[in-house]
Amino acid sequence: MPALLTRVLDLLMLQGTVTEAEPVASRMRRLRIEGPALAGLDPRPGQQVRVLVDGSLTRRTYSVWRYDPSGAVELCVLDHPKAGPGARWGRSARTGDTVRLGKPEGSFVLRPDAAHHVFVGDETASVAFGAMLAALPDGAPVSGCLETESADDRLPLPHAGRLTWSLRGATSLPDAVRGLSPAPGGVAYVAGEARTVQQVRQTLVRDAGWDRRAVLTKPFWAPGKRGLE
Ligand SMILES: Cc1cc2nc3c(=O)[nH]c(=O)nc-3n(C[C@H](O)[C@H](O)[C@H](O)COP(=O)(O)OP(=O)(O)OC[C@H]3O[C@@H](n4cnc5c(N)ncnc54)[C@H](O)[C@@H]3O)c2cc1C
Q1: Residue 127: CB within 6 Å of ligand 1?
Q2: Are 86 and 127 part of one and the same domain?
Q3: Structure confidence at residue 61 (pLDDT)
Q4: Do 138 and 63 have their domain in common?
Q5: What is the mean pLDDT of residues 16-44?
Q6: Domain range holding 188?
Q7: pTM of the full predicted structure?
């Protein structure tokens, strides 16, 4: 990368170093990125960061899994079958690598005062859900449906016992939500593959009578599209 571009990126983006890189589920790696520039960022649970993933200007977006205010951001990156630059980066990142990333952003965040919280999504969504669930106290009213390719793809989530897990190809997520039939009055967080997100939203609004504004949605990826944000 030309020196001038490097200097511009240093001004525009935060920089950190990978200090831990390890599997957290069968196809998901947890990357801990540390550095003084990452101190005091105060991400809201569910927010994401944009990461330069291949040593050029290619960006992919990842939810903040855990944050340490002394200066560490943890991400979990899925290694999916059509791996593009994001999945390849997640697969190959090593301790000592330099990472450039943006500040935490986004409005797909926990509504802490909701009467109950319903989480619906896939492997990618479960990263944001992990941060949101970790911010809820023991005994908080939580339910939801999570779909993964295999049982080994499940992230260790707080409050996991109150979530319903299914395998892709068995029950669809909209059907799983119909089965759960969550009563309106709380907040639903729906993320993952774009079309499924829309279908789940329709299920909650049309079939279960939820107020549209109480269903927070965020498409994380779509077949055939590259890096949605
Ligand atoms: C707000 C937000 C938060 C996100 N948080 C996370 C996160 O915490 N962890 C995470 O792993 N990803 C997350 N993503 C998705 C991430 O940004 C990338 O889209 C993902 O890593 C794929 O990038 P890629 O370069 O490998 O593939 P791309 O070049 O973006 O896509 C290539 C092709 O791969 C296929 N594809 C992409 N994703 C998947 C998938 N999950 N399963 C099957 N096929 C796929 C599609 O057909 C796509 O056309 C998030 C996205 C958004 C918008």
Answers
A1: yes
A2: no
A3: 98
A4: no
A5: 98
A6: 117-221
A7: 0.97
Q: Based on the structure, what is the number of domains in the chain?
A: 2
Instruction: Kindly report the backbone phi and psi dihedral angles of residue 153, in degrees, each rounded to the nearest multiple of 5, phi listed first.
Output: -85, 0
Atom 2 of ligand 1, residue of closest alpha carbon: 220
CA angle at 151 for the pair 90 and 127, rounded to the nearest 5°: 40
Which atom of ligand 1 is closest in space to residue 227's alpha carbon? 30
Rounded to the nearest 10°, the torsion over CA 167, 125, 119, 164 is 20
In a domain, 111, yes or no: no
Whether residue 124 is found in the same domain as residue 74 = no
DSSP string, 50-76: EEE-SSSS-EEEEE-SEEETTTEEEEE
pLDDT of residue 3: 80
Among 122, 124, 126, residue to substitute to test ligand 1 (most atoms within 8 Å of Cβ)? 124
Candidates 220, 226, 228, 229: which one to mutate for ligand 1, based on the most atoms within 8 Å of Cβ? 220
| Ligand 1 centroid from CA 115, angstroms | 31
> Could you tell me if residue 132 is inside a domain?
yes
- For 91-135, write each residue's pLDDT tens digit: 999 999 999 999 999 999 999 999 999 999 999 999 999 999 999
- Which atom, in ligand 1's list, is nearest to the CA of 86? 25
